[in-house]
Amino acid sequence: MQQNLLHIHLIATVKEEDCRVANDKHTYQVLIVGGGPAGIATAITLHAKGIRCCVVEAHTTPIRKSGEAIPPNAKPLLKQLGILSLVEDEKHNVYYGNKSCWGSDQLEQKEFISDRLGHGYLLDRLYFETQLQEVYQHTNCPFYKGFKLKKVISDKKEVIATIENDSETLTLKSQFIIDATGRKASVCRHLGIQKENLDAQFAITFNVKLSNEIPHEIIVEATENGWWYVAPFTKKEVTMMFFTLKELLPAKENTAIFLQHELQQTIHLSKIIKNIPIEHCKIMPAGTSCLQIPFGKNWLAVGDAAYSFDPISSYGITSALASGFYGGHAVADFLHGKQEALDVYRYVVENAFQAYIQKLIAHYELEKRWEQSYYWTNRLAVFNSEIPS
Length: 389
Ligand SMILES: Cc1cc2nc3c(=O)[nH]c(=O)nc-3n(C[C@H](O)[C@H](O)[C@H](O)COP(=O)(O)OP(=O)(O)OC[C@H]3O[C@@H](n4cnc5c(N)ncnc54)[C@H](O)[C@@H]3O)c2cc1C
What we know:
Blueprint: H1 5-11, E1 27-33, H2 37-48, E2 53-57, E3 69-70, H3 75-81, H4 84-87, E4 93-95, E5 97-101, E6 108-111, E7 120-122, H5 125-137, E8 143-145, E9 148-154, E10 159-164, E11 169-179, H6 186-190, E12 196-197, E13 201-209, E14 219-223, E15 226-234, E16 237-245, H7 255-264, H8 269-272, E17 282-285, E18 289-290, E19 299-301, E20 307-308, H9 316-335, H10 341-365, H11 374-378, H12 381-386
Parallel strand pairs: 1-2, 1-11, 2-8, 5-14, 11-19
Antiparallel strand pairs: 3-7, 4-7, 5-6, 9-10, 10-11, 12-18, 13-16, 13-17, 14-15, 15-16, 18-20
């Protein structure tokens, strides 16, 4: 476990054809659906353990995703996965924490919730996704890029998945399937397994080109109805997100007016980001959700598919990589006959999730300026009544 997995897969002699079971072109030991951080971490771990696997990813090239901060305590994991050098690339920035107006009227430098081991990183997320996929491609294991999962059938013996792109439909067979499809948990949905939402937080997101350059950092500011998150996209473009509860979301046609109003309520952001057009807004779920159990007879979920985190925590990417690493080890051990390996995975990820919830509650409890408002009264109510045991 102390070995450097990147090193292992670079020297490994497993070739593409060896990743498949002999004589059957599309048959593998493990099929991973999703080529984001969780899927790729699982794939490079399984490959290093000598498991024949493949990755199916819906997009032909990485797409823009929300989330760019990596906390300092992720570094040992990145090292273990052999990908620390990726985040040290000059396209990413060393990072100590967000500027935050939360719990008081001051805009302060806030260290990450877990502030051990020095600095973290502010990623060029699109570039990071590309780097991760390149690492996997070095293993020479098959990468079905541009293929979307359409159907999964799981019986006692095997998993049969149908995937398709614009021009072909393929049937893949495997002993085991990994759900690394992100928040939607598509594999689980196909298998009839539901994720539980522990709250109803949503993000309204949009990008803005600025006329002035602003510091390359994330700014968080709480308001009466939720909180703002502004992250650099390019030197003069930022991604802006307003987080609120489902009940407070405006009607679609009122979104821009609602956001202009919310921006005006801020003490600091409204001075930093002025006179901006608000258009092309997207609304997406951005709360905490989890599976009751993150594995079944011949499937296991990693990353957001298993546990989705509130973006205030900056936990998502690290947790996706960690669950890919531990999930990969667990599945490899399971396929080598260790029946208890999947329970060990569950124990590790459930404990990490419980610790996250405690820290999340403590963080939201710091904000006491609007104790009568709907958002701040209801933000934690669901957690307190619905934390899974
Ligand atoms: C607003 C917001 C801000 C955030 N900020 C941060 C932050 O600062 N720090 C942080 O660590 N995290 C942050 N996150 C969370 C972080 O981005 C996610 O936790 C992380 O991307 C999870 O990785 P994943 O691999 O599990 O899923 P994803 O990155 O979502 O990858 C899933 C992949 O599966 C593919 N896929 C989906 N369905 C199918 C299908 N049917 N067939 C084939 N492929 C499929 C998708 O194309 C995708 O590439 C934020 C999230 C949000 C919403």
